[in-house]
Amino acid sequence: MSLIVLLHLVDLAAGTVEAGRSMLWAGLAVTLFVVLFPPRVTAGRHWLSVRGLLGERRVSTDLLTQVSRRDGIAQRIVLKDVRGRRVEVDPTTLAANPLLWHELDRGARVAGERGLLRTGSPVLRTLRERIESDTARAVFEASDLV
């Protein structure tokens, strides 16, 4: 909102305010907001939720059937459960928040024990190793052991 006001103030100061430019600035501000709006990831006992601009998506982590990794410009971990629900999570979000990772990992282990998690164990194992390595490194750095 402040971006659109700032752009209009600059136009007003330059004396170039017109309807077309106003629509252009509004479109630019909305586009930037959509692109830069971070999804909110929350988790609880046996569920993980991602809330974005278009609503909230939730999976039951103890009922996961598939975990996959989608590579590209923005890497994502894709989680699917037996109910057909699907969420995409940025792996750096999980690495930065150990509580989110713990809830996902705990639920995925339960799904694996139940025989539901058919694909994705290597993806979870790779992510687990990365997070544990980062955590150990952070502990060593905080202790001045590195």
List keywords for this structure.
146 residues, alpha+beta, PH-domain like, 2 domains, three-stranded antiparallel beta sheet, 5 helices, 6 strands, PH domain-containing protein
CATH class of the largest domain: Mainly Beta
| Strand element count | 6
Binned, the helix content reads: 40-55%
- Given as residue ranges, the uncertain stretches (5+ residues, pLDDT < 50) are none
Q: Whole-number average pLDDT?
A: 87
Structural class label: alpha+beta
Description:
This is PH domain-containing protein. It is a single chain. By secondary structure, the chain is of the alpha+beta class. The protein has 2 domains: 2-36; 40-142, PH-domain like (Roll), CATH 2.30.29. The protein is built from 5 helices and 6 strands. A 3-stranded antiparallel beta sheet has the order 1-2-3, covered by helices on one side. A 3-stranded antiparallel beta sheet has the order 4-5-6. α1 packs antiparallel against α2 (19-36) and α4 packs antiparallel against α5 (121-142).
